[in-house]
Amino acid sequence: GKGRRLVATRNIREGVTLLMEEPISHATRIDFRLKRCEWCLSSKQPIKRCSKCKLIGYCSRNCQVAAWKAYHKHECKCMVGLPKRLERLPATALIAGRIILAGLSSGTDAKLPEISKSSPMEKGLAKVGKKAKIRDISLLDTLWEKKATEKKMYYAQQAMTLMNYLKPAIASLTSAPTANNMAALLSLLDANSYVITDPEMDSIACGVYSVLSMINHSCSPNAIVMFRNKTGQLRTVKSIKKGEEICVSYLDLISTPRERRRNLLEQYHFECQCSRCAIFFHEKKIKMSADESMDEKLSKLLEGKEKSLEKVKSSLEAAKLGPSDSKRALSLSRQALSEAKAVCGPYHAYVIRAYKQIWKQAMYASEMEISWEYGRKTLPLLEFVYNSPNPVYAADILFHARVCWYLQKVEEALEYYKKAAKVLKITHGEEDKMTKECHERICVAQAEIAAKAQALQ
Ligand SMILES: [Zn+2]
Ligand SMILES: [Zn+2]
Ligand SMILES: [Zn+2]
């Protein structure tokens, strides 16, 4: 958001961890619930279910006790009463609930004079929140006012579900949060929470952080946020000069400038002024003013193009099926690719998305040769999209290296393990398991190639 920013106080090189932070509140995403410890997010098996609600699980007794004390004592009561169809609550709803319920466990807010009101929501944020977050409460209403009616309706509906879910814990309170409070909280969480990824870049959970939420956005970021279980790490991916602002990207960067602009406006209420957006929209403006004399025929043509682009986008979305439906997904994605190629240039975000979808879906469908073919087609396009080291890109290069290795294309595997190691070193760090995997494979591949060369002599 505006006003809060993080600035480098010294020159910093790339690949450095600037800070580590624990979340104010967090929750697993639906697909990873019961596969990860709800408290520490570790995947250490077995994950034991809470014996009462059976809806969440923990890796250890310690984690269970910590969660119980923090919020689950109240949350469990709410979960036990859930009808079957509501059992799969989205992470944001769980987080909102936890923030509110944490307030019920706290005794007094005397130590926090900044908080004037004492509804459970404010107590909740005060109890778990650090200073930066507490100030956000006053922002709640102003941001809320900026929302489009359509969005407000959406959050109002979510708030009703949340209200019903929390009823067993808050029904008897005299100053329970209102549906309006909850709607505003949910929209605040949408704009301020991070998707927590594991090193392979699977989205396992969501979390709200204090300092990390103050970092502004750029489509050409000089930093990234990585996670070790639930601990957030701010890492540099470019060398940063003293006085320069530190920015991360809030968005999936495989998107068109217009998509980026729309997302940022709708969800975060600002217009991106980064160099990439500035160049694009500046050029557009010049073109637009030259186009004012444009005849009707041409404007109809452009409108038609806009419509075909929308169609490509929905074809791409329709092809996103689960791993169990991977064969059908693969053929739908191929169809989407030919649609995209018919209306977009070769570096258009939709073409790149289609390539990437086919690449990954082919692997799930055990079509390894197809996956390999699309991996080598997609990676150069991704290199064009990310103009700074990006963790998703790093994981993608490693993905292709593994496919090459599996198909016993040793020389190509070596090339991509080397490429992956170079990016992973910056994004994930030298100590990461994936970086180490690269170094090990590079050694083995080099030895194999040398042995083969010797055998040929
Ligand atoms: Zn745990
Ligand atoms: Zn429980
Ligand atoms: Zn931008």
From TrEMBL:
Residues 111-251 form the SET domain. Signal peptide: none annotated. Pfam families: SET (PF00856), zf-MYND (PF01753). SUPFAM superfamilies: HIT/MYND zinc finger-like (SSF144232), SET domain (SSF82199). InterPro entries: H3K4_H4K5_MeTrfase, SET_dom, SET_dom_sf, TPR-like_helical_dom_sf, Znf_MYND. One of its GO terms (cellular component) is nucleus. It comes from the Eukaryota. The keyword Zinc applies. The keyword Zinc-finger applies. Residues 37-76 form the MYND-type domain. Keywords: Metal-binding, Zinc, Zinc-finger. One of its GO terms (molecular function) is zinc ion binding. This is MYND-type domain-containing protein.
